[in-house]
Amino acid sequence: MSALTSHGPGLHSFSIGLENSPDLEAGRKAAKFIGTAHHEFTFTIQEGLDAVSDVIYHLETYDVTTVRASTPMYLLSRKIKGLGIKMVLSGEGSDEVFGVCLCAVSVNGNGAHRTGYLYFHAAPSAEALHEETVNRVNNLHTADCLRANKSTMAWGLEARVPFLDKDFLEVAMGIDPREKLFGEQHPGAAKMEKSVLRRAFDVREGGGACGEAPYLPDSILWRQKEQFSDGVGYGWIDALRATAEARVTDAAWEQRARRWPADTPQTKEAYMYREMFDQHFPQPACAESVVRWIPRADWGECAFPTLNIRRFPLSVGSIWTRAESSCCCLLIGKGGFMNACVREDGKIWYNVNYIRNG
Hints:
Blueprint: H1 2-5, E1 12-17, H2 22-34, E2 37-42, H3 45-59, H4 64-82, E3 87-89, H5 94-98, E4 102-106, E5 114-118, H6 126-138, H7 144-153, E6 158-160, H8 166-172, H9 195-200, H10 218-221, H11 228-231, H12 235-247, H13 250-254, H14 256-259, H15 268-280, H16 284-288, E7 321-324, E8 328-333, E9 336-342, E10 348-352
Parallel strand pairs: 1-2, 3-6
Antiparallel strand pairs: 4-5, 7-8, 8-9, 9-10
Helix pairs in contact: 3-4, 3-15, 4-7, 12-15
């Protein structure tokens, strides 16, 4: 990307989020570093909520994770097309190729508080990780590529996905899966997800020309993965849940299994999306065509996806202190914080950057 910005017409980059969201800040830094003409857009909670039904119509799905992430992308695509741009590059596919997917873990029994972990971190072996990456890549059309294609094409914008280029896939999927393992439970493995890809953009480590700078700033290159629906602003998911809570009555919720015996909604948010879907597509065959994104249940505690994170207020202390719940802990120290998702035996699964408080 840096090389391309120095040849031919200038490249444009785009980001969207709620005011002061993490993705806006990250996009700003990356664009300044590589020299693109950057376009930053914001949306309000209400604008997002107003678009949800249209998003479900265009994507033809009620999958919670897909709807959450597709709505900001749908709004961004409208802005980009309004600038007269016809084609964009998007980063779908790299998580599945390199073995990184986010998942939620309930902190308490009723699921009111959650934290996220990277469920590929729990891969029991390199072989198992490779098999799962193949499975995820083969099913990208049901989730991430569905979002990238239909959120953009709803406005006549074409999205191309370079991480799914055939030549790139032949190389990336042929990498020894041991190079994709990460976490302390795998001796000798990288400490961070997608380290192979990150190192490719860090020419200092890769043996680049004398003193050559990396392709991305360290704050971006070594940034913890963040799910798009969280990166656009942590209030987005909160608003969706609150809206569903107000919209779906307790009486209707109690009858959910009778209304939908197959693929019964597990949350009021899922109920709301399913109801919107049925309004657009009342035929039973339409719902039967929907494929939901669900991680492997045999790799850990997680039964469904989506990260839910926010900065906790920090307690002041001279040493790290530990606040535990059923399956997550927060390590708090003076001047900073470190979060971890833990197993029941107390062993840390993975350090993350932020944690959401409710």
